[in-house]
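Annex B.
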Amino acid sequence: MKVGVVGAGSIGLLFAAYLSRKFDVTVYTRTKAQAKEINTHGILVKKGAGRKEYLVNALPFGEWQAREDLSIITVKQYQLAGILAKINQWSALPKNLLFLQNGMAHLQQIETILNGNLFVGSVEHGATRENFNTVSHNGMGVTNVAVFRGDLQPLRQFIAAAPKDFPFVYQEQYNQMLVKKLIVNAVINPLTAILEVNNGALIDNFYYYQVAEKLFKEITLILALKNESEYFQQVLDICRKTADNRSSMLKDIEANRVTEIDAILGYILAEAKKQKKEAPLCQSLYLLIKGKETNKGGIVA
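2-dehydropantoate 2-reductase: predicted structure tokens.
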């Protein structure tokens, strides 16, 4: 089975490396320089004290035509426009696409793809890209996947053939799966990015914990969640499990990159507006992150 991984950030490198053990993988990079580095030296995965190199074929994104049996789209939500523009230029549309973006704002974007099987997923792994071909695997997890539109069978075949120590778990309902990840991201990411703390600080610090709890309650009212305690327990469990990790949003701020705040809190604020509900905490955190992006040079105001 041939697999294409579109995007060579932390998640793209991690997936390309692990999946290359079972599949014929090609990773598509933003630059020719990164593709050359991967083709020359492979992908180096650092996990604890271990180091392992994986030989993976790499091509610049301009050469992606989705001819593989499955294309896994790992770019961030705000980068999807370029991906979709390319897809919509093709006369023959790709067969199977798996989208691994945070938040839920990307669902409206991928609806514009007219044909093919569309899958979505949520990633529980922790990873940090250190350079063009090196990724640190900071936290082991699973990748939950579901059918957004189309035939389930290709996804089932992929799950069955994937490495057992890098598992993919099928979920019946994509909406519930993404909501769970959205809530975790909406609580942990903006707070850690603003406070500039590791994930564990949100439960270790009494005052930070109270803010996280209030933010969670505001989000549950907007999303009309049932079983609130289960969702909040999931947030706490992730904070404990990744206590020493820095959230992706914090790492984006530190690296002067645009964050995924629009895909996460932006989506929740849009839902609040539809329902004519107040969301003062979400609104304040959203604006603070946008302010940090501007100050860091990640985006032009």
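The longest helix spans residues 174-195. The mean pLDDT is 93. Further annotation is deferred to the next reporting cycle.
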